[in-house]
Design goal:
double-stranded DNA binding; six-stranded mixed β-sheet; Beta-clip-like; alpha+beta; about 25% strand; nine-stranded mixed β-sheet; 6 helices; S-adenosyl-L-methionine; 28 strands; about 525 residues; 2 domains; PUA domain-like
Length: about 525
Amino acid sequence: MNASKPYRKRHEELKRWKVNRAVVTFRNLFHKLMHQYKVYEPGNSKVKTKALMETARTMRREHQWENTQKCVGHILGIDVGDVFQNRAELNVIGLHRQFWNGIDFKVMDNSLLATSIVVTDRYDNAMKSNGTLVYEGQGGNPNVGRNVSLIDQTLKGGNLALKNSMQTRSPVRVILKVCEKFDGEFSNTGNDSHYSYVYDGLYLVDTMKIERGRFGKLVFKFTLNRILGQPETCVSLKDHGEASRQLASFTPRKKHKLKGCVAQKEVVRIKDLSNGGEKFSVRVVTSSDCVQLPTSFDYVVNNIYSNKFKQEILCGCDCADGCVDKESCVCFRKNGSRMPNDCNKRLASDMESSLTYECGPSCKCCSSCINRVTQHGIQFQLEIFLTELKGWGVRTRSFIPSGSFVCEYIGEVSDYMEARWRLDDDYIFHMGVGKVFINAGKCGNIGRFLNHSCSPNLCVKDVMYDHKDKSLPHKMMFAVRDIAAGRELTYDYNVSNGKLIKCKSNSCYCGTPECNGQIYI
């Protein structure tokens, strides 16, 4: 018995990880499809639904769904209080296998048993603060579709399954559809809001009765009570009394979270950490119950070089046409007669070399030249946030296409003799050439907050444009794949053309399938 406990715990952790991976995969693909649909189908009000369904279908074809067999009771890998963004996610992880219907069920011993229900305000559902739910049966409700007939509900399908669950005392999973307004409060109404789905745990069906509904037709009313001893969820429910026919409003209670998937309510602590230095403001956000701020430092947008470094100006091109005539461009020839960026100013896929040359101050081409990308600063809305386990991190507020320049790692550039007395700082970046370091401890930019990942979405490229010393390249971060809005930005601290020296901890918490548990290997 004792020997089986560690195995059971590892099995539960593995399932939790698989569920988390499925949700992350779903959201990444969904955001990518949404971007494509908005480009090719502007103005289509059904784009979101189309993208959700296509994402779910694609993952099913690729066998990326979890918990594919319906079951009664808790789902391994899903905790009470976990929050999900839409009904499609519930299907992908196996919590509720109905895209549109509120009652899910399965056949057991030639009988239908309810497995889960979704509580929304489209039916006359009522929740009480003591954990009692009055749930209206399905059918005959014009609020759920255009062509629904206004008829009496019948004892079949989901309604029959709930009755059988009542008679067999079989538990039913309950998922609450909640509406989080932009001010952080939860309710079931309001236009300026975002819906989420909270797993509220297991309930037992205690009674069933038939009465006239609000449309004058016969409806089933099921009374369910929450099984005691379960964790409280992230919402509490206001008691509207015995006569209430409205779904209760929701207010924060205890915060539960599916790791890497669910964000708590956040507030902006600093509107622009760069103080106007960047093209886009760099804001700092934390959860509403956290007042921690980043350690003080000077935000700079260019490297600060030690006086020991004598930089010779890089010879530039004489192009007057924006380097359209590549064959006559000096910078083009420096890159092996290949342009490092495509027509969208994104990293060319065939540029395998880590060192590239851009047109710079000594070039005669215009500032909009296709080969001037990284020297204009950040081009996307980025923000600094407090992660769960890794301290501060950086995430994007907008979609970043693959190959796009994201930011530079900036700080004080010095040699080993100057840097050694500060090697205990947490922001030392080894150039990868000789004994040259970038120290972003006292002076730096948003790059100092980027975290490590064993499966990063950024890569480091060495870029030259303002001088010819190859031991002092600019360390530029590029997207290696499409990055959806809201995703954390990460790179591999073990890159061959540079290495971030971290002394506090070697433990990795990136949570990716490729994670080996250590940053430095």
